[in-house]
Amino acid sequence: MERTPENPGASSRDRFESKNAEDVLKSQTAGLVPLDQFRKRRAEAQQGHDSSDGTLQSPRSLSPGLDSTIGLPSKKKKKRAPAKSNLSFDVDDEVDANQRHESNQKAASEKAVLNKRLGLITTAGHILKDMTTTAKLKDARDREKLMIQFMAEQERVKETEIIIPFHFYDGQTSIARHVRLKKKDSIRTFLDQARKVRPGKGRIDVDDMMLVVENIIIPHHLSFHYFIMEEVRGAEGLIFNYSKKPTTATPSPAHAGSSNDASIYRPEDKKAENAAIPDEDLEGYGGDSSKLRIVTVRWYQENKHRHPFYWWKTFDEHADYTKPNNRDAEGNKLFFQSS
């Protein structure tokens, strides 16, 4: 136990310092403590008082191994381990999975919007694979073969003879007539043959003649085959209603020559029986002659301001002739139709 100092004659300065050290020791110690602990604490208090800066150091800092309240060795605090979750899955993993799912949905929606803007087909059930080199070569050969066959067939179609009914028109319909031509022949050839049919018309030059189908003026340089293949239509249907496929009047393909060009038709190899086909067996025989009118340029210039001749327009491949024209040149709507 603590005892009073045995030297009552100590200087006042020593007593003051001793008193200060004891005050610090008392304030930091509560209750009974072992003697060795008490002596150690008192020495530490005295040592802190006698330091060079003249300030007392805390017993905690002088002796970190002792508890400052009860004078016992301090215990190091253990870090608390994170609480173990009772769930069968990790909450953080679920949050990350939800974020990834949302980002994937956003990317898919943006891709769908882009495909819609570009006009891509996203609902196709089957996507074709890239063709191999061998398949590409085979496809190219097949295309070339089909093209050769088509060209050979069209050469035969061009040589097919047809009947073209017509009539001369000068304000009144004349007697129906017809000429025999081939589909490859031009309008100029047709007009040249037609002017020889009627007496007196042979003295008229071809450039002074016009062919009018419905209300369309046909240029001289175009051929019948062009109108047949393009299927040009007017308000009453096809302008020239002839088949674009081989018919009974179509010449047979040549059998002479090599195997490479055996399917190519040559006009000089035409069979003699093809020229002997009667008119009654050709396309166009007995057709409506009032549809095709041949007029002179001079007569048209004198009457083009009258009805219904001001409806006549020169053929334009980009124009639409399927709808009847009921307006004049100034755009005024007419109350009558052409006869």
What do you see in this structure?
The protein contains nine helices and eight strands. The protein has 339 residues and is α/β, with parallel strands linked by helices. The chain is rod-shaped, with a radius of gyration of 58 Å. The model is unreliable at 1-18, 55-71 and 255-263 (pLDDT under 50).
Structure keywords:
339 residues, alpha/beta, single chain, 6-stranded mixed beta sheet, rod-shaped, two-stranded antiparallel ribbon
Q: Write down the overall mean pLDDT.
A: 74
Which structural class do you get from the secondary structure elements?
A: alpha/beta
Q: What is the molecular shape?
A: rod-shaped
Give unreliable regions as ranges. Answer: 1-18, 55-71, 255-263
Report the count of strand segments: 8
Strand content: 5-15%
Binned, the helix content reads 25-40%
